[in-house]
Amino acid sequence: MQYFDSYTQDMVALPPVDTPDPRALSREYNPTVYAAAKAFAELLCRGALHVRVQNEQVLDPYRGQGYFLYGNHTQPMGDAFLPMLLAKGVPAKTIANVANLQVPIIGPYIQAGGALVVPPDLHRMPAFLQTVTACIQAGEPVTIYPEAHVWPYDTQIRPFSRAAFHYPVTLQVPSFAMTSTYQARRLGTKPKITVYLDGPFWPDSTLSTRQAQQQLADTVHGQMVKRAAQFSTYAYIDYRKRVTS
To answer: Where does the pLDDT of residue 8 fall: very low under 50, low under 70, confident under 90, or very high at 90 and above?
Structure first.
C-alpha cells in the first residue's frame, strides 16, 4: 500500500535538478542511438513488462502524419520506450522533464534517442515549441504523459493539466489516448500490461484556445478513465490518499 498527499506528488525519486548546461538541451536526435533504444524497447516492454497493445489499428490512417499520444504515467522505464513500438517508419518522440537528463547512464542519451526535453526557463519555450512543431510536420508522433509524475502500476487515471494539451490545439492535429491497464499473470506477482489505444480526438476550433485545451483534456481523460475502470483488474500497488485530521 502506498499513501499519497496530492496527485502532484512524486512516487519515484528523481535526481535533484541542477541548472542544465545549455549544450545539454541542444543535443540532437541520433538514428543509431534511436535504433538501439527501439531494440531495447522490444526486450523491455514485450519481454520484461509483458506489454500487449490493443486497438492499434486506430493509428493506421494517421501514419505519416503528426499526432499526439497521451498516456497514463505508470512505468518509470517502460513509458519512455513504449511509444517506439507504436511508431512505424518514423521515430517516436516523447516530451520529458529536464530532470531526466540527470538519470544515471541513460540521461545523457535520451535526447539522441528521441526525448524532447522541456527547458526549465520560459525564454526557451518558443524554440521548444518550434521543435515539437517540426516533429509533427515530419510525421513523427509525439507522446505526452499529462499526469507528469510517475506512479508505478497505478490503476487510476490522475488529473490532467490543461496545459499539456496546448500542442494539439495550437497545431490543430489529432490526439490519441494510450491507456496502460493492469491484469494478474498466472505466474509471478507483477501484473501484465494491456495498452488500449483510442481516438482520434480533435480540438474544437470553434472554442477559445483555453476552452479547446480543457475540452480536449476532458475528452481524453474521460476515455482513459473508462478503459482503466473496465480493464485494470489487478492492483499491484494500492494507492490511497492520506487522511489528515
So the answer is: confident
User: At 160, which CATH number?
Assistant: 3.40.1130
Please state, in angstroms and rounded to a whole number, the distance separating the CA atoms of residues 105 and 116: 18
Instruction: Report pLDDT digits (tens) over 93-136.
Output: 999 999 888 888 888 899 999 999 999 888 899 999 999 999 99
* Number of compact structural domains in the chain: 1
Supply the pTM of this predicted model.
0.93
Mean pLDDT of 138-165: 96
Which is nearest to 52 in space by CA: 79, 91, 82, 93? Answer: 82
Cα-based torsion angle of the residue sequence 169, 172, 174, 180 in order, rounded to the nearest 10 degrees? -20
Q: Is residue 145 a contact partner of residue 72, using CB atoms and an 8 Å limit?
A: yes
Residue in 13, 8, 32 with CA at minimum distance from that of residue 104? 13
Distance between terminal CA atoms of the chain?
Answer: 20
Per-residue pLDDT, 33: 96
Domain that holds residue 61: 2-241
**Alpha-helix residue ranges (DSSP H) falling in the chain:** 31-41, 78-86, 125-137, 166-171, 209-231
Cell matching residue 166 = 496546448
* C-alpha neighbours within 13 Å on the C-beta side of residue 14: 20
According to the model, what pLDDT value does residue 19 have? Answer: 52
Burial status of residue 64 (CB atoms within 10 A of its CB: 0-12, 13-18, 19 or more): exposed
